[in-house]
User: Fold this.
Amino acid sequence: MNIDARITRRQVDAAGLVLDDEAISPVAHVADPVGRGPTLEALLDYLDPILDGDLPPDAYVWGPAGAGKSAVVTALFAHLQPRPSRLGAVVHTATRARPDREPPQSFVYVDARAATTDFGLYHAVLDGIVDESVPTQGVRTDTLLTQLRDALAPSSRRAVVAVDHVGEAETYALSALAERLDGLGDSLALLAIGRDRPAALEDPPAKRIEMPAYDTETLADVVSSRVMSGLDAHALTYQRCRTIATWANGNAHDALAALFAAATRASERRRSRIDDEDIAHACEGIPRPCVPLAQVLMLPPNRQRVLRALLDVGADDCSSVEDTAAAIAADVDLSAGTVKRYLYEFADDGIVERVRMDGSTTGRPPSRVEPRFPTQVFRRLYDLEGTA
Assistant:
């Protein structure tokens, strides 16, 4: 993140409440997640074979939204990636095989929300395995697949590939993902991560690791740890951290979104403490269920611009999708027709909801558009990115 932007934000925040926006952001993961010791041990047990030079079986990590699945797996892979096996470090080149040594290992994390095509999937895996830069243009999908097979050839490399957010509306189903990775040989293990219970899936891996929702006390500790990292030491009492955790009902994303929104509100009012009114206002602004902000911030720039402009549409201009699209188009460099198409696609993906003016949620327009993500937090993060 831009250093000048960090300095500027501290100068603007006269109250001195928010010291680091990223530290309290619901889309930022920390190096050492709080309160997930048993799950971390279960994942280490699963990965233990590769630390001895063998490949673990395919596995499925599952749990509800906001349980910390992404946070734990990304943190663990970040710690493991530089580490050689217990048999010693390995120097590997493409031109010189070393049959007397164990092949090197890779721990690759892939976000299925970003890798929604076969090309994107193979590119992400290959890019996580090889040292060379993998081109994104001028190369065919089957060429990437061939290069990936070569990289994973016997005695070349072993890899555990974690694919996150499997089984969502716009991502691979577990069965489709396994089919695409199945032909890559015996040097790759798939660690799929999703929300669905194994019983609801077609042919899930035999190895399964459940990550349940946070209990209230543990989630309060998660919130408190973020407060200590990103806010003034006296900005929020532990009791108010617990209030946020109780409201979030085990969902860390929602809890951190509420913390971020409450801190932003207090800071904008030039106060150095977060009070109950800030928390209540923040919680009221977060829809339940809530679309994760990471999913929204992964959208292409034009679509994010439309969502940002949507937040500024006045009440007089939001009585129908057409009126809303016209109001947004006046602020962005897109036609009203394009904006209208985006809004309908957002509704199909659950990012926004079309609500009929009579209060029901069925049928076609006239209807207004209501965001299903934390708008206060999105506004702040989007605006900060624009100044970074």
Residues 252-268 form the longest helix (17 residues). Residues 37-210 form a domain with the Rossmann fold fold (CATH 3.40.50.300). Strands lie at 59-62, 105-111, 158-166, 188-194, 207-210, 352-356, 367-371. The chain has three domains: 3-23+214-284, 37-210, 293-372.
